[in-house]
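Meet our chain:
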Amino acid sequence: MQVKKRLKLLIPLITLLAPSVFFISEAQAGSFGAEIFCTMRDGGNDHESSWEAAYSYIKKQKGGIFKTSPKQAAGQIVETVVREREKFSYCVEYLDQLHPDRKLQLEKNRAEKRRKKEELLNEKKGNKISDEEFDRYSY
């Protein structure tokens, strides 16, 4: 009997709190994230610091169980700038840096992997002592 009574009290409480915990409005976080990004870029800050500030704000405001990915946050910023063109007209030129050229990025990653592989091979060759180089009877 006590369990049913507690359950009757718990269900309405959960239904009141669940929407605020799981379905927080992303529009507000994305809008202010865009404002942070665009204001910092317009103020002369570089892309990285502006992006980190906006992304950390969007992540913090989202809350809930699931976190916002960098792609989602960039999409929210672009969406806000496009939707509110008059307000963010100065920011359109910076949007291309939120979605970098994927082909160029892929080529850079491949070149970096190739360079690391070559470094490892060179280290292995340098540490390996062949029989020709090592004469155990030479003093």
The CA atoms of residues 111 and 117 lie 10 Å apart. The radius of gyration is 27 Å. Residues 19-24 have pLDDT under 50 and may be disordered. The helical segments are 2-22, 26-42, 47-62, 70-83, 102-127.
